[in-house]
Amino acid sequence: MSKNKNSISSVIAMLTPGILELLMKNRNLGLLEASDLLYNSQLYKILEDEKTKLWRLGFPILYDMLEEELTTEKITFPEEQI
User: In whole angstroms, what is the distance from residue 17 CA to residue 35 CA?
Assistant: First the structure.
């Protein structure tokens, strides 16, 4: 694993607990169900792509983007990210 990929993985590992906590709270899910939703989402795949720098948005915005994906099957990227 490259140093860059390792750094991105570390940042993602710091963001995911916040996203999971919001998913569990707002959707009344257990950790396993919330994890399944997050890790199988299109957003997570995009988040893992270091070129997108999506991790810079922080977990509250990422959570909102995930909710949008889960309810509409679409993801709207913030203006600054385009």
Answer: 9
Q: Is residue 43 exposed (0-12), middle (13-18) or buried (19+ Cβ within 10 Å)?
A: buried
Alpha-carbon torsion (48, 54, 56, 62), positive or negative = negative
Per-residue pLDDT tens over the stretch 26-49: 999 999 999 999 999 999 999 999
Helix-strand-coil split of the chain, %, nearest 5 = 80, 0, 20
Domain that holds residue 11: 3-81
In this structure, which amino acid lies at residue 45? K
How many domains does the chain divide into?
A: 1
Instruction: Give the model's confidence band at 82: pLDDT under 50 very low, under 70 low, under 90 confident, else very high.
Output: very low
